[in-house]
Write a sequence for this structure.
């Protein structure tokens, strides 16, 4: 499981509030990813990082921002949560380009 | 743009029957193809990658570049195979920008 932990695992928040999800990894993997999983859509890439302070947008980045100040931590922030962001969020990591991508256990976010 | 298609949302087979989960992709380059499995409310786990040509839990998948397919097969289904299966593509070589997933197939193995 590449030592990936996500926090919080479950959160209920109100529309309009900011939310930050944390992904922490212990394998010194260079590449980190945030996906969201929704019924009928599978997994879609939100943002990814290819090193400290190096990030880029994925397929569904609107409404999300990320930061990576340390190799081991990749934060996903919803600046102002909306109901459409109710989802399961998965963090993933990879050691070097071409290596297997490992997933965390997921964070269940409900925006009411 | 790259795309992965899994035409079946749900596939139900009886225990002991053969299983085939379909995956087609569109990508102009040389992709890496993967199958991930997700058991109920758990993390995604890598099942297969085409470059390793391994057989995991009795599953196999062959990359057919002519048909742009990477179907997952198992000759005799077991109840513990019930799960969500995702086909995924990484633009190769390298592919630092992550995986593109299909929408998934929910496999149900009936006793």
């Amino acid at each position: 499981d590449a030592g990936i932990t996500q926090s919080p695992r479950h959160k209920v928040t109100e529309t309009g509030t900011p939310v930050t999800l944390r992904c922490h990894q212990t394998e010194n993997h260079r590449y980190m990813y945030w996906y969201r999983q929704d019924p009928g859509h599978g997994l879609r890439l939100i943002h990814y990082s290819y090193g400290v302070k190096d990030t880029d947008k994925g397929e569904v980045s609107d409404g999300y921002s990320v930061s990576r100040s340390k190799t081991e931590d990749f934060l996903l922030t919803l600046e102002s949560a909306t109901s459409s962001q109710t989802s399961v969020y998965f963090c993933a990591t990879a050691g070097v380009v071409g290596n297997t991508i490992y997933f965390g256990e997921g964070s269940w976010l409900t925006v009411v | 743009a790259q795309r992965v298609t899994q035409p079946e949302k749900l596939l139900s087979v009886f225990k002991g029957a053969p299983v085939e989960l379909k995956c087609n992709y569109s990508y102009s380059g040389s992709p890496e193809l993967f199958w991930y499995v997700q058991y109920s409310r758990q993390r995604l786990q890598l099942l297969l990658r085409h470059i390793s040509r391994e057989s995991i839990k009795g599953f196999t998948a062959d990359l057919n570049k002519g048909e742009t397919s990477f179907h997952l097969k198992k000759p005799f289904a077991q109840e513990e195979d019930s799960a969500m299966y995702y086909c995924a593509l990484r633009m190769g070589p390298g592919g630092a920008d992550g995986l593109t997933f299909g929408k998934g197939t929910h496999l149900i193995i009936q006793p």
Observations:
- The CA atoms of residues 45 and 59 of chain A lie 5 Å apart.
- Chain A has one domain: 4-111.
